[in-house]
Amino acid sequence: MPELRKDPISGRWVIISVERGKRPSDFGMRVSPKKGGFCAFCKGNEHTTPPEILAFRNNGEKPDTEGWTLRVVANKFPALNVEGKLDRVGEGIFDKMNGVGAHEVVIECPDHSLTLSTMPLKSVEDALWAFHQRITDLKKDSRFKYVLVFKNEGDQAGASLEHSHSQLIALPIVPHLVEEELFQANQYYKYKERCIFCDIIHQEQGDKTRVISENDDFITIAPFAPRSPFETMILPKNHESSFLPDGNFTLLAEILQRTLQQMDKVLHMPPYNLMIHTSPFKNEINDYYHWHIEIIPKLTKIAGFEWGSGFYINPTPPEEAAEFLREAEI
Amino acid sequence: MPELRKDPISGRWVIISVERGKRPSDFGMRVSPKKGGFCAFCKGNEHTTPPEILAFRNNGEKPDTEGWTLRVVANKFPALNVEGKLDRVGEGIFDKMNGVGAHEVVIECPDHSLTLSTMPLKSVEDALWAFHQRITDLKKDSRFKYVLVFKNEGDQAGASLEHSHSQLIALPIVPHLVEEELFQANQYYKYKERCIFCDIIHQEQGDKTRVISENDDFITIAPFAPRSPFETMILPKNHESSFLPDGNFTLLAEILQRTLQQMDKVLHMPPYNLMIHTSPFKNEINDYYHWHIEIIPKLTKIAGFEWGSGFYINPTPPEEAAEFLREAEI
Fold first, then answer.
1. Which of A2, A102, B106, B270 has its CA 20 to 30 A from that of A250?
2. pLDDT, tens digit, 9 for 90 and up, residues A157-175
């Protein structure tokens, strides 16, 4: 009998095939081998990207030249425009506003051949620092309510360039999925006076079947009701409502890279999407929401059932996925 | 400047690139040519599927033999099990229940080479009849709250078999996306005392830029805030809360097939997902919800931004998509 499970954070139900779960070898999706050729993100081609917004390089070096270890530039083909007013307006029954927002790219490392799981740990830590610095800066712009940090690895996961990079999109509205999580977390807090994420961490640490790894400050789990096989979630163990106010990036980089290495080992370098969810600017420090990273390997297709229902069919129980990932020798 | 548009039915925002919209030729996705080979859905192989639940065939013919024009059978690999009790239960903070539901396949036509857009119109009409009959039957089972009808065309859209077929999944819970639409429609009704869908139809008929086609009873539009390029929606012009209580399937079949033919012509047979949204069994006849068909051609990838935000980036304004589809000579 399959199981219907409800994700307590989003309120979303998923169908889990608990009986004959699909094993890692049942999924054929791999990141395509890198083709190489000209790459605007490689060192030496700094002049072909928009100018640096932020870069980690030795003091005194000129911007947009070689010598950097990390660069942040504006997206050359932004989804939203950074200039302009919102101009919220109705069109009869409909609502619209100008597509105002920032869209930036974080080039995590100059080496074309590396990924978040193979680059030096220092580069992963630097990327987290860069996210934090850019969010802090974009927050000053009163038009923006939220910054979504995400990463697409592999063309099947939507990456249009193969050189490893992450993206930030500053938005004039709080994303729908974040609003849903905030709503559920708030309801739970009103009832229990506890953070739902803290309670989940407590339960998972006792149960152990869905825990993948832990260090002093962070824990990686397979969520109870994952949308996708081998979906994982990284959370700070202590309550923190927004993305690292105290900036402990060393331990976060360590568990993030370890999680990606475990996934690469078990699933042979699957394409994936990674997203950071954090409290919106407006109520950044609160008792009910808990920032986290979600990682979804791209192994199944979104089809009519998912488009029509908002439910997901997941052929691998998270308990089995967690066991595979936990036992991966990296 | 891109535009942020809000879909008034789901409450979801999308980013529309209104300046340099992607044209049909910019999308490379096509349905793969059919490979043929053994097919359980072809005539002569009736014994290889689960037994017929419903079939359209001449009186007196034996079930599960040749001679049918349409067959409905249980899905051999169902997402949910039809036997069993729900057994809702908690697991600490989490909620789960048995995966009880029905999962059926509608084989719309015996000919392996045809699709909904190329099969005889009578077959399309029969498929709609079959949906209606199966929903009416499944409704009698008190465990079920909703039946989602959907179709995946092409392997890129999630079809695992190439012989044209639709699917029905009876669910013990109302799908999340339907709940969202019901909520928004209800809010609107409380405020305006009118159906939001009726108001949208009225505005679109006046505006005309997003209308694709019409007949006496139905209208096809490109929604104001579509998730995907060339997304379309078919609605009954008069208020009807649930899937065709008076059963006018001829005109529905006609506009559905025409819409798919226009899409095939403009986008060269794209893979697509089709879903029917209707009021749940519990409050089937009401003044605020309006059943409809959604068709999403599979032209873009769902990536980190969409997974993380629940927003969509749509590179083709619906006004341009509607013009292409409207002017397609079929």
1. A102
2. 999 899 999 999 999 999 9
> Among B29, B176, B189, B195, which would you mutate to test the A interface (most chain A Cβ atoms within 10 Å of its Cβ)?
B176
- Between the CA of residue A296 and those of A159, A229, B49, what are the distances in Å? 14, 8, 34
The nearest CA of chain B is from the CA of A61 a distance in Å of: 33
Interface mutation vs chain B, best among A22, A93, A143, most B CBs within 10 Å: A93
Fold of B3-326: HIT family, subunit A (3.30.428)
Out of B80, B152, B276, closest to residue A303 by CB: B152
Answer whether B311 sits within 8 Å of A175, measured CB to CB.
yes
CB-based contact A176 B92, cutoff 8 Å:
no
Q: Which helix (H) or strand (E) holds A89?
A: strand A89-91
pLDDT tens track for A226-249? 999 999 999 999 999 999 777 679
Q: A175 vs B309: CB contact, 8 Å cut-off?
A: yes
Residue A170 and residue A78: Cα distance in Å, rounded? 11
Are B97 and B85 spatial neighbours (Cβ–Cβ below 8 Å)?
no
Q: What is the arrangement of strands in the sheet containing B94-98, beginning at the earlier edge strand?
A: A312-314, A13-16, A3-6, B94-98, B89-91
**Interstrand relation of B52-57 and B94-98 (parallel, antiparallel or unpaired):** unpaired
pTM: 0.95
Chain B closest-CA separation from residue A260 CA (Å): 16
Nearest residue, CB atoms, A199 vs list B93, B100, B167: B93
Q: Do β-strands A13-16 and A312-314 pair in parallel, antiparallel, or remain unpaired?
A: parallel
DSSP 8-state code for residue A281: G
Q: How far apart are CA A125 and CA B4, in angstroms?
A: 34
